[in-house]
Amino acid sequence: MSPTSPCLRRDKLVPAKTGIETWQLKIYNAQHYTMNDFEIYKNAAVVLKTGENVALITVISTEGSTPGKVGYKMLVWRPLAPGPVPGVTLPTGGRAKTLGTVGGGLVEAEVIDIAKGILPKHAPSAGSGQALSKVEGTENRVLRFSFDARTGSEGPRSAGIQRGICGGSMEVLVETFDQKSLSLFEDLLVAIDSGQKGALVSIISPKRAPKKVFLREQQVDAPANLDLPPESVASIRSVIHREQPERRTLQGGVGIFIEPVLEEPMVFIFGAGHLSYHIARYAKSVNFRVTVCDDRAEFASKSRFADADNIIVESFETVFGKIDVNKNSYIVIVTRGHESDQIVLEKAVKTDAKYVGMIGSKKKTATILKILQEKGIPQKVLRRVYSPIGISIGAVTPQEIALSIVCELTKIRRLGDAPTANHMKVSARRGLLEEDR
After folding, report:
1. For residue 89, which phi and psi values (nearest 5 degrees)?
2. In whole angstroms, what is the distance from residue 331 CA to residue 409 CA?
3. End-to-end CA separation in angstroms for the chain
């Protein structure tokens, strides 16, 4: 994504009577904001509230190397413009709007065209010639594309079109929605915002109308009106547990695509100095929520941490009583001194946090860990601590050190505690360039 690409930010406005927040579409610089599922669902709801219909495009399976990964999403819609009569809106007839990505390139352009073609259209109602009425129902399509120059694709432009040479293939689900689906997206927003787990299930069948259902975790054992075989319930539970989407084909050729609905992980940054400033920005850019904690109000402020979800000014001795640390939490300890680092670390290792990291040299780390062990904290617990913190990239500046820390957070999030991966470059692999010799 280019530095000037528009992105959306979540903005809380006046709460609606239903208890659901109202949402406003705003364009911000992508240097600070990045797209995630919450933003996609939020802006689908915003578009539907305007009276326009929207297409949701999702990558549902891949094989080999592809530009889009499973779960990538994009919205496509045609904005409505004010009509000649006050209070009347009409289709602009202009260029469709898009948000998000399914990988870019020729395939994305092609999928956007297909989505525009199947979006439910509006036309003037009979009689008045002014108000809009829907003249076409919603539908969905599954499209398959190959990025191997030796094979074709099932898309409409497959003949003579080379979409790429990545070598893989990608399956894309295109779904269209009208205002009847507004409650689905609002329900998703409430669940994600309140930390409720669940699954979003797309039912893909040439013999049925498109259907997308959100199930909270407690609803999975009795999915109302889904009409799916029992094995699908096990798949839905597995997706929620593994936090990974899954595409399955059931009896009768009916396909389902199941996506976990989860609250984004929270990074608790202890310390509000120059390093924390960059950690917060980088963490937000890769879809972590951020809470900054410090006992200095002049440092822990909204003016310094504009992107932070929460800012807490509190003593390090008592701050853990004001935060909710769980298995989806990451703790980064970068306070102004080793004494406060030790105070925070002693409390952090007693939580269920997925990650606990502390800045410092090897000597400082060994000293603090020894003190905590002498205070009765088991060695097994202390082995959880990532210190010195960060991935080794030769970082020198505060920005580089912050980048190395957020790289480590991302690795733990995506790969767990696996050994550090090597470089991905293929030029060093033996035999790769033999044909060029």
Report:
1. -115, 145
2. 10
3. 36
Q: What is the CA radius of gyration of the chain?
A: 25
Distance CA 358, CA 373 (A): 16
Q: Which two tokens stand for residue 349?
A: 């290792």
Mean pLDDT of 161-176: 79
1-16 confidence digits (pLDDT tens): 333 333 333 333 333 3
> Residue 195: what pLDDT?
82
Domains and CATH numbers, the chain: 6-82+89-180 (no CATH), 195-263 (no CATH), 266-415 (3.40.50.720)
Q: What is the mean pLDDT of residues 117-145?
A: 62
pLDDT digits (tens, 9 = 90+) for 318-377: 999 999 999 999 999 999 999 999 999 999 999 999 999 999 999 999 999 999 999 999
Q: In Å, how far from its chain's centre is CA 291?
A: 18
Q: What is the pLDDT of residue 428?
A: 53
**Cα separation, 409 vs 332, whole angstroms:** 9
Whether the CB-CB separation of 412 and 355 falls below 8 Å is answered with yes
Residue of 88, 62, 58 lying closest to 76 (CA atoms): 58
Residue type, 40: I
Burial (Cβ within 10 Å: 0-12, 13-18, ≥19) of residue 45: buried
Residue 91's Cβ-count burial label (10 Å; 0-12, 13-18, 19+) is middle
Beta bridge partners of 107: none
pLDDT above 90: residue 80: no
Tokens of 168: 């893989």
**CB proximity list for 197: less than 8 A, separation 6 or greater:** 216, 217, 240, 260, 261, 262, 263
Helices first, then strands: H and E counts in the chain: 9, 21
| Residues counted in the chain | 437
